[in-house]
């Protein structure tokens, strides 16, 4: 797995959320509910409530959003009626036809002169449902808030409409209050349609260059950071190291924990109570923070739907107490498609690990049908094994990309075949399994599905290779390639003597970054999904240590890759239902589901036994696919195990914005309050037990890795911890309810006898007080 790990902290990434200040506004005094004939339900309890909290949020945080609370899209087909929005908006052809039908229903009640005078006004008003800013125009950013009956109109435009076409108001809405109060009162009508932020009223919203300059493109902030959003998909996982799908059209997701347990998640978001596979009794994993051993890899056979085979990669200890990596084949139970048969395990390959770190762990099948295995260089620091290290030694299987054919056996008895076109099959000094070499510890690799239309890029294998102490790199794997380690790290020399060897002929990374950016790369995926078309072709990856998310975009002319940061959780970009504004810091792995949508897994405490891992899905808030394009019907599967429904833990952006600010802000601290996890101080102080006998397992990490743990522990500022604890102590508690009259607070009623006794006692007290005063 990734290294170095070893900053033992609870940490979350948070957004720039700020609660909007409430302002006094005039609400529309309207009773009851009304509905529009347009097909979109509009309600008006007590008001056109432009000016509930959601409207205030909208006025402050207006962003492209439709009435169904999703981002706008490019319609699949031409819009005949609201054609102004056929390139980008909130209407598909069906919705456009519905609006057109409503328009002609209205025009049937208007005379020919009215057609000429009011037709354009009525059409423009109806078509605002198709505007990319429809949710803002109708105060619909929040599903809890009632919609307007009519869109927000700029005052001048509204005044002209009222002057020329006020009789059409009763045709545009069936709300009796509007009909009665506003046909004769222009000022009142236009004040009701007024938006707090006039940049978003119609038609100003069409003229605002700031709002429309990059409409539909991935949003970037002033520093060029791509604004994406997340949804929480799973939580409570113990160091989730991978998520894979079986490519069997069931759209199940298989999530593996480092301890050696694989869970099945169904398309409805639920998890099966019983695991797909549980081999934690065999897997070598410890509670030590940052231990790289454990269950590390899994891949389904390309023909899993027919043969039920899958493959796993894990650490274990043999009978002689030697630590090894095992790659093996298993089958699914014939009686339950959601359970693996642990007795079906067939060992394919075992490799002795000279150290506890750099275990590799990636398994995947290429488009050629062969299985690719990615091994680490053996561990410690600087690949100190042999004259040139394991990575440059083609006779060793460590520090390599291996390629094998799992559908057969070799003549020499190996439980797999060697592909005939492997690059070193004819080299007597090389192992025939070697496909590429010179890698240090590739952590997470992925096959590019290719562009959905042109298939460009299909079959490329991208990998993140964790660096020693200077550079992290992203590589594209090619047959026979030498990726330079230990001669090079990133673009620079590591071993000077090897680096200047003219026979090195190494392949340079497509991107490398230094320690000022991050300390431990986690390789990702090229996005090829359907739901977020803007992301197509972006290679999205991250850094384990600092939680940074990044993207690479290939420039077609130069074939060079441009890097951009990804920012998550902006209130302006992510104020959609279900979107969250934070994620756990330590990014362990990336994944894609069967439909090609992109996810990542991270944890707030990187221990194999700590249940603080979560699974998140990327969402582009600027643009989505048109309705109906990305629909798929999962093949149903019989489930014998109980389904556990998903219960989200992270608060959404809208929930955070809707929280009332009832207390004074906390005192200033060097630690942002938003970065404080919602755990008690007692829990935060606890660390997993590390009382494991040295005779059983090797200390992890060893050598240079252990020095890094100590160094980071020294550099971690204890004062900062104190400040975090201090801020968490003064986190405001929920306000107490107002006291109500009860038997505890009422004045007791006294009986006549007790009343006389009480009166006598009172007189005695008065006499005593008078005597004291005279003395």
Would you give an account of this structure?
It is a single chain. The protein has about 775 residues and is α+β, with helices and mostly antiparallel strands. It contains 17 helices and 30 strands. The strands form eight sheets. The protein has an eight-stranded mixed sheet with strand order 22-23-24-25-2-29-28-27, with no helix packed on it. Strand 19 and strand 20 form a beta hairpin. The longest helix has 23 residues, at about 750-775. It is elongated and about 95 Å long.
Shape field: elongated
Structural class, by secondary structure, is: alpha+beta
| Total number of strands | 30
How many helices? The count is 17
Rg, Å, rounded: 32 Å
State the distance separating the first and last CA atoms: 87 Å
- Overall average residue pLDDT: 82
Please describe the structure with a list of short key phrases separated by commas or semicolons.
775 residues; alpha+beta; 8-stranded mixed beta sheet; 4-stranded antiparallel beta sheet; 17 helices; disordered C terminus
